[in-house]
Amino acid sequence: MSNRVEKLSLLSEMIAFAREDNALKPIEYNFLLGVSKQLDISREDFDYLISHPINGISLKSHSERIVQFHRLVLLAHLDSNKSPAEEAKLFNYGLKMGLNHDSIMRVLYLMDGFPDRMVPAAVLIDIFRTQYN
After folding, report:
1. Each residue of 86-128: pLDDT tens digit?
2. Exposure of 87 by Cβ count < 10 A (0-12 exposed, 13-18 middle, 19+ buried)?
3. What are the Cα distances from residue 87, in Å, to 18, 45, 48, 66, 74?
4. What is the predicted pLDDT for the residue at 1?
5. Among 14, 82, 96, 133, which is 20 to 30 Å from 25 by CA?
6. Cα–Cα distance between 108 and 118 in angstroms, integer?
7. What phi, psi does 82 have (nearest 5°)?
8. pLDDT digit string (tens) for 32-66?
9. Which stretch of DSSP H or E encloses residue 6?
10. Residues whose CB falls within 8 Å of the CB of residue 53, separated by 6 or more in sequence, listed in order
11. Count of CB atoms within 10 A of residue 27's CB?
């Protein structure tokens, strides 16, 4: 992904996802900061997005949507808390991104089988690839 606007949009969406409980925990902030570095977004721009979210844009590539969903799964489980509200939020974001209903459900179901509920990227990609084909 090379489009700067797309990168800022993805990060803004993740910040909004983390803030839905009206608080951005230090562990979430640090994770998001790491994602911003991975996306080559400056600290200045990251800090700006914290206070000034931008509208999201739709990712065209199926693989980019899967990667973004994986980031959201990781973000949602940083604090190792499991709540039906968080799972519903993940499910709805997945649907909003146009991901397969059954694949999303399978990821949410399988999370409990992994340490700290962190689904490895390879497993997640395989789940979506199976449904995509």
Report:
1. 888 889 988 988 889 999 998 888 877 877 777 787 888 888 8
2. middle
3. 13, 29, 28, 16, 12
4. 47
5. 96
6. 10
7. -115, 125
8. 999 999 999 999 999 999 988 887 777 778 888 88
9. helix 4-19
10. 12, 15, 16
11. 13
Query: What would the mean pLDDT of 20-43 be, rounded to a whole number?
Result: 88
Q: What is the pLDDT of residue 80?
A: 67
Task: Say if pTM beats, i.e. exceeds, 0.85.
Answer: no
Three-class HEC string of 56-91 = CCCCCCHHHHHHHHHHHHHHHCCCCCCCHHHHHHHH
What span, in angstroms and rounded, lies between the C-alpha atoms of 69 and 94?
6
Between CA 66 and CA 25 the distance in angstroms is: 25
